[in-house]
Amino acid sequence: MTMPKPDTDTIRALQGLEDSRSSVRLRAALAVGTAPDPRFIDMLIERCAIEPEFHVRDTLTWALTRHSSSLTVPRLLDEVRSERAQARSQALHTLSKIGDRQAWPAITRALLSDADDEVARSAWRAAVVLVPEGEERELAAVLSTQLGRGERETQLSLSRALIALGEAILPILRAATTDLAPRVRAHAIATERLWRDPDAGFEFAIEEAKRVVALGGTGQEGE
Q1: What is the DSSP letter of 84?
Q2: How confident is the model at residue 8 (pLDDT cuts 50, 70, 90)?
Q3: Is 194 exposed, middle or buried (0-12, 13-18, 19+ CB in 10 A)?
Q4: End-to-end alpha-carbon separation of the chain, Å?
């Protein structure tokens, strides 16, 4: 008995996404995104959770955005509760690209403070895209609890997320400049400076903020 063509296509796509060569996996993801088919959604999401190559993961995300959000978003919302960190991170990243605000309730405080830096960073990016109008300040308050966290890349991601929320962050950042932890104070000062002068660069802003903190200042005018 001859297998129907759609099943053959599904098998071919699955084999391509599981190939040991990243170039083959990349081509398979491109092919699936070029010809969206609901039957591919589960395999795309599953591959996102284990794919080691960044460019392939990014193409898998693109392929998912090519499918109907009514089909992808429910599956991605399941995935953000996965025990696998990469699964959570990629699901959040994909939700931020889809931009369907129905996903907002899934962006929990637990995800925004996830122990895995990549998951937390993806949650921050998704949150600023999905946050409903009028809830920016509440989100900024939650994000501010992560000030001082991690290395420069993680701190820059948080600063960018906060800055994307606009003026709602300013009172919260000013409060954080008096925090007992020097890392928190420095990160808050650097973020506020970046908000005021986006061209300053994070590296310069954070080093300048460290000097201010070392001298006992808070970065406020007149200090």
Answers
A1: S
A2: confident
A3: buried
A4: 82
CA angle, 218 as apex, 217 and 223 as ends, to 5°? Answer: 55
The CA distance from 218 to 213, in Å, is 6
The C-alpha angle with vertex 109 and arms to 135 and 58, in degrees rounded to 5, equals 90
| pLDDT at residue 186 is higher than 70 | yes
CB-based contact 145:172 (threshold 8 Å): no
- Give the tokens for residue 187: 């990160």
Give the closest residue to 74 by CA, choosing from 45, 112, 49, 48: 45
Whole-structure pTM value: 0.85
| CA dist., res. 75 & res. 81, Å (int) | 11
**Cα–Cα nearest to 60, from 84, 36, 81, 82:** 36
Quick: pLDDT tens for 75-89. Answer: 999 999 999 999 999
Task: At 65, list the tokens.
Answer: 């955005």
pLDDT tens digits for range 120-133: 999 999 999 999 99
Whether 173 contacts 155, CB under 8 Å: no
